[in-house]
Specification:
The chain is an alpha+beta fold and about 130 residues long. It contains four helices and four strands. The protein has one domain (about 30-130). Helix content is about 50%, strand content about 5%. A hairpin with a 5-residue loop joins β2 (about 15) and β3.
């Protein structure tokens, strides 16, 4: 999973640890955003641990992604910085096929998160019943 950081000269380059640098701000891939949501939903990691794991500098970033997830605005995970589309669910120039593929990927990610949640819930119930 990659996230992107800004160097002072504003050029794109890839470092040894799979980071890609680009102009502006930290930009995180859709995969990183979903992984953060999944880790947060699992309850196994603190915000600080998630920030260290994914190189996130501010806890508000995690809160934003969780808000998008809770409010079913997961289409925003694919939007580039500064492109927060207010009326549509993605760029106007996306084909219907692209939109369907993006939606399918979101649904798959949601399904993974829900499966993980159910696993954790089942394990907790088992632990509680054995005590």
């Amino acid at each position: 999973m990659r996230h992107y950081k800004t160097p002072s000269n504003g050029t794109l380059k890839q470092s040894t640890n799979s980071e890609v640098f680009c102009v502006g701000k930290n930009i995180y891939s859709s995969e990183v955003k979903w992984a953060v949501v999944k880790d947060k939903m699992s309850g196994q990691f603190t915000n600080q641990e998630i920030m260290q794991k994914y190189g996130i500098k501010n806890v508000s970033q995690i809160k934003t992604w969780m808000k998008w997830y809770r409010e079913n605005q997961v289409h925003r995970f694919d939007q580039p910085i500064g492109k927060q589309y207010s009326y549509g669910h993605g760029p106007d120039n996306s084909s219907d096929e692209d939109k369907k593929e993006r939606q399918m990927n979101h649904l798959k990610q949601e399904n993974e998160i829900l499966k993980k949640y159910l696993e954790i819930e089942k394990e907790l119930k088992r632990k509680l019943s054995s005590n």
